[in-house]
Amino acid sequence: MVDARFRVDFADGGKGASTSVADPPGFATLKELGDGEGGEPARTSAAAGKGAVAGPAKKRGHQLTPAMRVQKAYAFAGGQLQSILMMGFMMWMSGNGVQIFSIMITFGGIFNPAKAILTSGKTFERFGGADGAVEAAAAAWREKVLEFKKLYVTLQNDGSEDDLSYIKLINYGEKVLTNNMRAYLPQRIVQFLTATHPTKHTIYLCRHGESEYNTTGRLGGNSPITERGWVFAEILAKFAARHISNLRDVDGLDGAAGWEERAEGDPDGASIAARLWTSSMLRTIQTASLIPHPTLTPPNGAPWESMAPRIYRNIDEIFAGDCEGLTPEEVAATHPQASYLRKMDKIGYRYPRGESYFDLISRLEPCIQEMESYNEPLLIVSHQAILRCIFAYLTGVDREKAPGMETQIQQNVVYQIDLDASSEQHVTGDEKRLPAFVTVHDFRDEVERTMRERRGGGSREEDDKVAGVL
What we know:
This protein has 2 domains: about 20-30 and about 60-150, no CATH class; about 200-465, Phosphoglycerate mutase-like (Rossmann fold), CATH 3.40.50. The protein contains 16 helices and 13 strands. The chain has helices spanning about 30-35, 45-50, 65-80, 85-95, 100-125, 130-150, 185-195, 210-215, 225-245, 280-285, 330-335, 335-345, 355-375, 385-395, 445-455, 460-465, and strands at about 10, 165-170, 175-180, 200-205, 250, 255-260, 275-280, 295, 305, 310, 380, 415-420, 440.
């Protein structure tokens, strides 16, 4: 056995795994090692764990994968056609004389290929159906497992390899076994692999509504949201209730809108248990304050307070230090080199006594790990710099490009990111081009339309003047 410092064991926990390719010496399934239902641990000697050939395992029935069945079907359908050359050679060897042998060869050379062509359609009937794509995907995955079985053997379960450092993953982190993982890097690898899973999960990124500092262009601070910000908060609450949690809209006794849970069997589907994160800043808490968070009863029977707000200081806005609360003009006057240095290296520039984008990435890491472990939809209401880093991470954009994503994270816009095992193939790596798994919900026009209605139908330019934008 090849000595290696670190190993990741690709354990095959599926009950329908193919066994058409013989297992190499030393390979054993979870059931044989005692990790499956009713399995007994494999009894091997210490020498076997060091590379000796293990004894014969219990014989199992061989079952072809769909891909192998298709291959065999093609071989069967074309088998008779492949024998035409052999038939012609035998007819040439039999000569021109009329003999029983030449008659049989001639008959077989014509009848058998014709029969194969006419009946080949029946050979493929069992491979049809609506679930053909699912079968093909499952077959492709099993083929990958078979390739691994040809090159690797499972970690021995008899203690002969306990001196090695390894990670054993079962069903993408459903069960994780680690051994001798003491150094910093191995522990970080364990942390990452434990949180990773291929289950589809959706993350919604939303910047807070317009704040008072936004109207004057001041950096940072902890100002409340404006009237326009509260309008977006109302729209966000309805979006979260209908689109994320799938709640039913009902009218209360006072005519105000209310929300209630959709039960199993509802024509529009059952309500969804979801999560909500905000920063500790007042403007994000106010933006998410109107989102309903009823207590749902999932199929497992455990109560779940959907969209219960959780406050994370790790997703607070970048701290501008001595520049907090200043306008760009005031920053240029008090810190003349700040604007120039930040343009030269925006990701590495640290505000005087403040933070840089590298600092944001460092404090975001625990949240990223927790976010990746969720199966439920997650709505994050945070700030522009923070959301740029998260958006770049989820869409496969280099972190050096994250500070330059000027058009991606806008106010009054919700970015829906649907992640699953196929997301990686849609990554563009271009910060200006969104991947296919990103959906943009733009509420900017709705916010402005609502503002005009509440102010008596004034023009948009007048609304902007009132808000102090122009």
